[in-house]
């Protein structure tokens, strides 16, 4: 007799550098808690970010821009991601890096505009008349084929729908029967049918059938409340970029030439300004009628010093347009040359006229105690066991080099501990891997000491 263990079906996700961040970690008065929601320290930056979140929620922030400025590894990207977490998944958040604009296929300004439109959502509310319920019967009624010959055609279909309040029997058009077949609707499924368009949507299996099997591939939904025939408000969230793409795709015929034309086309095509203006007109019409509302999201541009003078001037115009998201820049540069110019030195590599428009939030280097807390957080996120002395040794390494380097030593130290048969990482494992790898500072020191041995 074979006994098998039941494996967990929970999805395992790859752990990234910011997997542990769940929000800004503020209390109800907007005051930052020293260590909360995955963020440690940076109290003033987090408090400022909390005010920004409130402004975004009250829709008072659109078309403004923020700049996170601070040395590398001080949590600029982390706070931007925390802002996105605070806003929830309904507010669009579009992260990009400054160097993304240098594409071989499309213009720099087009890449920027595309990301701008990705960061603006449109919430469309429609009131639809629907029939909703659990399918109790599904019988197609056949008649003789009117065109003669063999076979029968479906003249109509009888469907029984049941909700918590009552049942109804409907007689449906044969075209709806085809949609029912496409959705693979069976007796016991919860569906809704739109009265005006005849569109069928299968929501899942009724949860009365939920305990039939040990292994289930179905999604179970509760029996709908209310009547079978009801008015339902359907809310759809789309971004303006989705609308641009849907309208930019040429609808070719089904002949060979148009198929070939679509295959030969490069993958990315530019969306014209004219098309965007037309879409904006339609969007504004919907907003005026009260069908839709704009949800300005967040566009996060990391390494903003990588942008050049052309893209900065374009950003000016984009920020002033009526439909604009909140733009958050991040940079770790001090005074440097503006890219695309010969000799203009500016703070953070951003032109002064654009700097004038920005609210600047400063992030400060972490102290040793904060480094220890962050490393402890990372160790628990990555599922690595480390003792207190090991953590102290690792935070010492981080204080002398960088936080990123110390966080990267966690996994090699865990492997070294496993090789020795130890259950936890201790200081000697940290020291062992620290001697094997170099951090940026010690690498630079070696390069200066032995500069004669390297090529110029």
Q: What gap, in angstroms, lies between the N and C termini? A: 71 Å
Structural class: alpha/beta
* Rg for CA atoms: 29 Å
| Tally of individual helices | 15
Unreliable residue stretches? 8-12
Oligomer: single chain
Provide mean pLDDT, rounded: 80
The total count of strands amounts to 17
InterPro entries: AAA+_ATPase (IPR003593), P-loop_NTPase (IPR027417), RuvB-like (IPR027238), RuvB-like_C (IPR041048), RuvBL1/2_DNA/RNA_bd_dom (IPR042487), TIP49_P-loop (IPR010339)
Main location: nucleus
EC number: 3.6.4.12
Enzyme class: hydrolase
What does this structure look like?
With 456 residues, this protein is α/β, with parallel strands linked by helices. The chain is built from 15 helices and 17 strands. It has helices at 43-57, 76-87, 108-118, 174-182, 240-248, 256-264, 273-289, 309-320, 352-355, 368-382, 388-400, 403-408, 410-420, 427-436, 440-449, and strands at 35-36, 39-40, 65-69, 93-97, 120-144, 152-162, 167-172, 189-194, 200-206, 220-221, 229-239, 292-296, 298-302, 326-331, 335-337, 345-347, 358-362. Helix 1 (43-57) packs parallel to helix 2, helix 3 (108-118) packs parallel to helix 8 (309-320) and helix 11 runs parallel beside helix 14. The longest helix is centred in the middle third of the chain and has 17 residues, at 273-289. It is globular. It starts with 34 loop residues before the first strand and ends in a 7-residue tail after the last helix. Residues 8-12 have low confidence and may be disordered.
């Amino acid at each position: 007799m074979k006994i098998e263990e039941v494996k967990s079906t929970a999805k395992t996700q790859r752990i990234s550098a910011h997997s542990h961040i769940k929000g800004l970690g503020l209390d109800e008065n907007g005051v930052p808690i020293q260590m909360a929601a995955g963020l440690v320290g940076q109290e003033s930056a987090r408090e400022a970010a909390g005010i920004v979140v409130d402004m975004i929620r009250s829709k008072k922030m659109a078309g403004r821009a923020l700049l996170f400025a601070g040395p590398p590894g001080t949590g600029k990207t982390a706070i931007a991601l925390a802002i996105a977490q605070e806003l929830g998944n309904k507010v669009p958040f579009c992260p990009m890096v400054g160097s993304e604009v240098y594409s071989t296929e499309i213009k720099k300004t087009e890449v920027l505009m595309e990301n701008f439109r990705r960061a603006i959502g449109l919430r469309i509310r429609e009131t639809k008349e629907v029939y909703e319920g659990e399918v109790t019967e599904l019988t197609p009624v056949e008649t003789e084929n009117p065109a003669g010959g063999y076979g029968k055609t479906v003249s109509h279909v009888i469907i029984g729908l049941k909700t918590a309040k009552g049942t109804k029997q409907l007689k449906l058009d044969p075209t709806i029967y085809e949609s029912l077949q496409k959705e693979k609707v069976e007796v016991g499924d919860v569906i809704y049918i739109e009265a005006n368009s005849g569109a069928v949507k299968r929501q899942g299996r009724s949860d009365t059938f939920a305990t039939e099997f040990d292994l289930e591939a179905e999604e179970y939904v509760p029996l709908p409340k209310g009547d079978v025939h009801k008015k339902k408000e359907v809310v759809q969230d789309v971004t303006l970029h989705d609308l641009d793409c849907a309208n930019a795709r040429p609808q070719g015929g089904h002949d060979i030439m148009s198929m070939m034309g679509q295959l030969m086309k490069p993958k990315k095509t530019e969306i014209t300004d004219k098309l965007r203006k037309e879409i904006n007109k339609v969007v504004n019409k919907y907003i005026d009628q009260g069908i839709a509302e704009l949800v300005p999201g967040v566009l996060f541009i990391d390494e903003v010093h990588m942008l050049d003078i052309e893209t900065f001037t374009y950003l000016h115009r984009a920020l002033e347009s009526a439909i604009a998201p909140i733009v958050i820049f991040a940079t770790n540069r001090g005074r440097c040359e503006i890219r695309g110019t010969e000799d203009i030195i500016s703070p953070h590599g951003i032109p002064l006229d654009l700097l004038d428009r920005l609210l600047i939030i400063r992030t400060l280097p972490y102290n040793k105690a904060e480094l220890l807390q962050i490393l402890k957080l990372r160790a628990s996120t990555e599922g690595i066991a480390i003792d207190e002395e090991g953590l102290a040794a690792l935070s010492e390494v981080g204080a002398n080099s960088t936080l990123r380097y110390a966080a990267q030593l966690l996994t090699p130290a865990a492997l070294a501990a496993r090789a020795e048969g130890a259950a936890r990482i201790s200081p000697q494992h940290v020291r062992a891997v620290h001697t094997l790898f170099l951090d940026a500072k010690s690498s630079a020191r070696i390069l200066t000491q032995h500069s004669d041995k390297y090529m110029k």
